[in-house]
Design a protein that fits this description.
Blueprint lengths: L2 H13 L2 E3 L2 E5 H7 L5 H17 L4 H4 L2 E9 L2 E10 L1 H9 L6 H49 L4 H6 L1
Antiparallel strand pairs: 1-2, 2-4, 3-4
């Protein structure tokens, strides 16, 4: 896949994100286009597979794939309601994982989410390491303070060894 396509798809994916009350989500019909699906019916099948994965992973489907209705223009100023899903980032990930990997857009999305997952793992490892180092530094400071107090109280080497 050429670099231009990768950059365009990544930017487009992030551009389609919405935020409601601090919750990031995508509309399924937007994602359908981004993932290269022409027919809604075919894409709904992918979403249904993703929902099964979500449920089998112990997550609540409604938390990640809520059903919504959306008004769309049908021409000459008329509007009608259509079925829609609001997808969390996790739902987008599951949808991409259950999509047709022969589609260039699906292959990109699967790779994108795999890389993002690895980045998150590395960030979590670094945070854990920093927390461990901070705890060690606090312990060193506490032990130094304790040693000073013991020395100031006149405890000899034997007493210090017992403590």
């Amino acid at each position: 896949m050429n670099k231009y396509i990768v950059l365009r798809l990544k930017k487009t994916f992030e551009d389609y994100a919405y935020n409601a009350e601090g919750i990031e989500f995508w509309y399924a019909r937007d994602l359908q286009v981004l993932l290269g699906y022409d027919k809604w019916e075919n894409f709904v099948n992918v979403i249904e597979k993703a929902k099964i994965t979500c449920k089998n992973s112990g997550h609540n489907i409604k938390d990640h794939f809520p059903d919504v209705r959306k008004m769309v223009d049908v021409g000459s100023g008329a509007k009608r309601e259509i079925d829609e899903f609001m997808l969390t980032r996790y739902a987008c990930y599951l949808t991409a994982q259950n999509g047709d990997p022969r589609k260039e857009e699906i292959a990109f999305a699967q790779s994108y989410f795999a890389v993002q997952t690895r980045k998150q793992e590395l960030i979590e490892q670094r945070i854990a390491l920093i927390e461990r180092l901070n705890a060690r530094q606090k312990l060193v400071v506490s032990e130094t303070e304790l040693s000073k107090l013991i020395y100031e109280r006149g405890v000899d080497d034997e007493g210090f060894a017992r403590i």
